[in-house]
Amino acid sequence: MFRNLLLATGLLGLTAGPLLAQSTNSGTDKFQQLDQLLPTPNSFRTASGAPGADYWQQRADYNIRVTLDDNKQAITGSEDITYTNLSPDVLTYLWVQLDQNILDKNSITTSTQVAEVKDKMSFQAMDYLMRSDFDGGFKIESVTMKGGKALKHTINHTMMRIDLPTPLRPKQAVTFSVAWHYNINDQLKLSQRSGYEFFPEDKNYLYEIAQFYPRMAVYNDVRGWQHKQFLGSGEFTLPFGDYRVSITAPADHVVGATGVLQNPEQVLSATQRKRLAQARGAKKPVLIVTQMEAERAEQKRVPGTKTWTYAAKNVRDFAWASSRKFIWDAMEIEQAGSPVLCMSYYPKEGNPLWGQYSTEVVAHTIKTYSKHTIDYEYPVAISVHGPVGGMEYPMLCFNGGRPEKDGTYSAERKYGMISVIIHEVGHNFFPMIINSDERQWSWMDEGLNTFVQYLTEQEWERNYPSRRGEPKNIVEYMRTDKSLQTPIMTNSESVLQFGPNAYAKPATGLNILRETVMGRELFDHAFKTYAQRWAYKHPEPADFFRTMEDASGTDLDWFWRGWFYTTDYTDLSIESVKWYTVDSKNPEIENAKTREMLNSAPQTLSQQRNLQDIKKTLVDDKPELKDFYNNYDPTATTDADKARYQQYVQSLKPEQQSRLNAGLHFYELDLRNIGGLTMPVIVQMTYEDGKTELVNIPAEIWRKNNERVTKVFITPKPVVSFALDPYLETADTDMSNNSFPRKLAPSRFELYQQQQQATPNPMQQQSTSQQGKPGGSSTSGTN
C-alpha cells in the first residue's frame, strides 16, 4: 500500500530534504498583496475599510404622483425632486436615470441583443425577438424648475442630463419637477423587473410596478456620476432620501407599496382597518383581505378611483403593486425593540403556498438577516406574488412560486418559492441599506445576499435543500470551460453565466471563509462589522475586502485574488505518499523486520519457472563450490550485534532513547495544486484501527511554492489511507485524486425513452392513489 523505507540517517535525515525543497516559487505569487489592485486609501475611505472622516454622500427626496390606467395598462406621473449637494464639488448639471427606457424601441439593449433563429422556436422566443414592437420607454412631458420654468435637458438612452441654470454649490439644494407617461409591459411576454400579468379566467390584471419614475443617479467620491447605461444585467445604484408617493388606481384595487400607508381611512374599509390593527399584535398572519373577498372583487368592477398615499424615510427607491385580485395578510414581529409589520399580497392562484408560507418567511428573513448583519429599522417588510419572478425594492419585493391549478406543488416549487422570498426580502439589507453599486458590481448585491440567504434557509428547516452556498454545489460551474467564465470582479454587464458568477460563486466563497479559512467567530464578527460600517452608505469592493481583514486580523488577500480576481478552480491532489519508520538500531527488532520483508517479497515470474525447469544447479551438484556465504544469514542476530547496540544506546541522551524507541510513523505527502486556486489543505488520516484524524492546514502552506509542496505527518500508529477535503469544504472539482490509495468515484447515467410524458408531482401522485378509496379526495386549490 505504502512504500516502507528504513532510515539509516535517523530523524534529521528525514526532515532536512523536504524543508529545503519548498523554497522554490512556481513563477506566480498568489500571496502577493492586493495593494496594486485596490484604490489608495484616503480621507473618504480608510485603509481599514471604514468610512473616513470626510466621507459624504448625496441626498434626493421625492414627492411623486402617479396614476394607473387599468384599461390601457399605462402609467402617468409627475414628481418633485429635491436634490441636496453634500459633496465638496460644485455641480453644473445633474444626471437622472430613465431605466424604463430599456423598453424604448431604440434602446441600446434592443439594438445589441444577440439571438439565433432555429428550425423550431417557441412563441415566447419570437416575442423576445420582436420586442421592438412594444414601446415602453418614458415619454418625458416636461422638466421644470419650481415655479414652472423649463429646464434644459438631454436624454441619452437610459440617462438624462439636466443643465442647472445656476451651479449647485456644496450644502445647497435644488428642487425640480418632471412629468412623464409610459406603457406597462406584459411581463409574461416581455420579461423585465416590472410589468403586469393578465388572468384570462376572470379578465383581471395584476401590476407590479418599479423603475416607474425618473430617479437620481449616484454622485460619489469614487467615480463621480454613475451614469453607466442600464443594459439589463447591471441593476441600480441610488441615493437615499424621503419619499411621499400618491398612487391613483381603480377604486376596487388593493395597493401595496414601499413605506407606510398615510390615508387608511380613505382607502380601507372599517373591517380592513380593524383586521390591520389585529395583525399588529398577531403572532401568525391575519387576513386583511380574504380569498373570498378577493374573488368577489374579481367578478365585479367598482367605478371610479382611489388614491393611496405612502411615505418612506431614508430609502433609496420605491415600488408598488396593485390589483383587485389581491389577498392581503399581515403579522407583526419585534426587531431590536421596534415593531415590523410583515405582509404579503397575492392572488388566489398563489394558494395554498402563499397563504401558508409567505408572511412567515418574511418574518423569519428579517429576524435572521438582522442577527447576521444589522437590525432592520424599516417599519414594514412586504412580499408580493405576481408575474415578476424575483425582484427587490425597499420594504417590498416581487416573488414567484405558484402551485399547480389543482393546488398541488412539488417540493422544488415549495422550496423555490421560500428561497426566492428569503432572497428578495433579504435584499432589504444588500443593497437597499448597505447600498452598494449594482450597476458596477452585481456580486456585492447578489453574492452577499445569497450568502446570508443560505444561512437563513438553514435556520428555516434542518437540511434545507439550498441551491447555493455549499461548496459542493458550485463544482459543476467551476469545472466549465474557462472561456465561458469571468472573474467575479467583472462589471455587471460583461459577466458570463450571471447566476453562478454573481450569486453562487461569491456566496460560496464567503461560506468557505466562514467555515474553513477563518472560522465562524472571526468571520461573523468581521461580516457584521462591514454591515454596521456601511449601513445607509455606499460601499465599494475595497471597503468590503479591507473590513473583513481589519475586523478579523486575517490576511485574506490570497483569497480575494484567487476567488474574486481569477477563474482558477480548486483541484488539489495527493500525488504520492511515502511511508518511513525510524531505524531503532536494535538488531533483534530490525533483523526480524528485514527477514519479514524478504520472506514476503513476491517471486518474479522467472524465479517461479526456474523452480520448475532447473531441477539441480551446479552448486548443488558440486558442494565444494560453496563457501561461508552459502550458509550465512544476514538477518540473524549475533552477540557482537547486541554489544554494538548496547554501546550505541548508552551514547544517547534519555530523550533521544525515547525517540528511538517511540515506534513513530512518518508519512511524506506530495501535494499538487492542479487547478491553480489556493486553498487550505484538509487532510483526513484513517488509521489501521479504523479511527480517523482531521488536520486543517492553512492555505499559507502554498506561499513558497504555489503548485507543489511536500508535507510530513508523524503518527503513533500506522495510517492505511489519506483523503483531502473529506467534508467537501473547498469546492474541489476532482475528487478522484483526493485519496491515497486512489478510490473510484461512482457515478450514474440514466436510460430514457425518446418521448416522455410529464411526471406528476408527488402531491398529485398521492392524490391519484387516494381516488377510489373510501373517503378519498383530491387536494383543493383554495383555503
TrEMBL record:
<dbReference type="Pfam" id="PF01433">
    <property type="entry name" value="Peptidase_M1"/>
</dbReference>
<dbReference type="InterPro" id="IPR014782">
    <property type="entry name" value="Peptidase_M1_dom"/>
</dbReference>
<feature type="region of interest" description="Disordered">
    <location>
        <begin position="731"/>
        <end position="783"/>
    </location>
</feature>
<feature type="compositionally biased region" description="Polar residues">
    <location>
        <begin position="767"/>
        <end position="783"/>
    </location>
</feature>
<dbReference type="InterPro" id="IPR027268">
    <property type="entry name" value="Peptidase_M4/M1_CTD_sf"/>
</dbReference>
<keyword id="KW-0732">Signal</keyword>
<feature type="compositionally biased region" description="Low complexity">
    <location>
        <begin position="753"/>
        <end position="766"/>
    </location>
</feature>
<protein>
    <submittedName>
        <fullName>M1 family metallopeptidase</fullName>
    </submittedName>
</protein>
<feature type="domain" description="Peptidase M1 membrane alanine aminopeptidase">
    <location>
        <begin position="358"/>
        <end position="563"/>
    </location>
</feature>
<dbReference type="InterPro" id="IPR050344">
    <property type="entry name" value="Peptidase_M1_aminopeptidases"/>
</dbReference>
<feature type="signal peptide">
    <location>
        <begin position="1"/>
        <end position="21"/>
    </location>
</feature>
